[in-house]
Design goal:
This protein has three helices and 33 strands. It has about 525 residues and is mainly beta. A hairpin with a 6-residue loop joins strand 26 and strand 27.
Amino acid sequence: MPGVNVVLSVDSMTCVQSTEPGRDEVYFRIHGNSSHGLFSRRLPRDDDYYEFNSDQTNNQNQHWTNQDQAPVGRPVLWAGHLDEGQGAEVVVFIAEQDNKELGVLRDIAKAALAALKAAGTFGGSPLATAALQGAEQLVDQIPDVRTHGIIGLFSFHFRNVPVGQMEFVLLPWTGFQFPGYTQGATTSRHPNSYYEAALRGDGSTEAVHLDFNGSPGGRYNAVITLTQVSQFHDMDLLELIGTTIDRCRGQQSVRVSSRGGQTAVPPDARLVRVEPTPPTNSLIWFCGNSRETRDNMPLGRDGRGPDVIYASRFPNDDGRINWACYRQTAPSFGTSRRDLRSGLIRKIKLVGMNNEIFEWEAANGGKSWPFGQIQIQDGWRWCSRCLGLWFSLNPNSRCPSGGTHSQDGSGHYFVPHNIPAAVRALGMSSDTWRHCPKCQGLWNENGARGGKCPAGGSHSSEGSGHYSLIIPGLGTGNARTQTGWHLCTNCDGLWFADTPSKGRCPSVDVVLPGREQFSGHVRQEGQAGAELLAG
């Protein structure tokens, strides 16, 4: 069977009873694995949610609205191309943001999966057994973070088998619980405790009806569909990077400057597609005959503005216009991690802060890892807004672009921690890098400027360990590492410099000799930079 295009999506979801009086703030957290590698993401995006009220059904793209009440399309859990023999699997958490943090996500997931395995209700299905094993591996990749109330849990396993069909199985996780709360459950309306089927040919679709009894209290149901398509729909391969609002009151015409001319957005229109003209960090549009400019458009992980905008108008809401901004992605969300290279290293085996084991093994063999078994810390992410490195497992981050850091499009980064001097001498920097508890960034306390912090004043090293970075080219063999990381000589923070954008530096008022004021990071001329372990 030739390669196939597959889309896994939530086509309909109904709130039978909200988790608390008023509106629910629902988001999807997805952890998966495919031929493109491990991936994780949150929908609609980091620090955002879908709105739900009791008795509300979202069953069209325009019904799915985010925190800005902007239509942002149905949740696409996975979209990608699978060659013969390839497959993918995802674990999906549906959560409600308003509830306080109730428990450690990985622990809750492991307990729920153990209960599912103990129930033994798969009837000897090889596909369901493979799905269970895949889910167990994915659960180990979930970060050790606290979670909000969980509405539902389920996992999908699908593969393009050589006999001419796309096999798949959905496993509802039939029991999960937070301490002190009643047990929640996800159940299928299929007679079995799981749903197994196959797709045969373009256009074929299988829909699975799920009921969610959340912990604590929310009740929802949803239709999850797996569809084989000849071509992807535009919104299948778009990544939401943000929404913003303008206003044009009454029934005046709205036109947007776009490639090839102008795009009209009629009153009461929903999700009108606009391809903005570069540079896309600003938008030119017209309310009647009045020319307007929307500056500070949301930026993607590479520091550039949106590739596509979906515009929606609400004349009866004081003329509100929602601009939903997207970046185009390659098929399969597993490719969104930045520049991960595996090559010459035979094997790396590292120990995390909580004694968890991280391993990388490349197919080509070659050099050996020069540092031995060292301690590293997971949880570090790249911020797509300021381009800095920050620790995502603590709350209350602070970004120099305003608000909190974003992990949209970020890989998972691992930073060597408390490394002995003899090991650092093999190819690491000094151990003067510190975690700042005020902004969650990584900064160098030996920097020339005392560490300017976006949370105000100077960075703090209170409670921090001693972090080191890998010097490029000194024996790592490019095994799961990413180059391009540099010290900012303006704020003493670590930032990713291998991009046209200079990000956003908290030292916005500093003027270097012979230069004008700037807001981007500064890389020292001739600086070698550092490599980060990525996975």
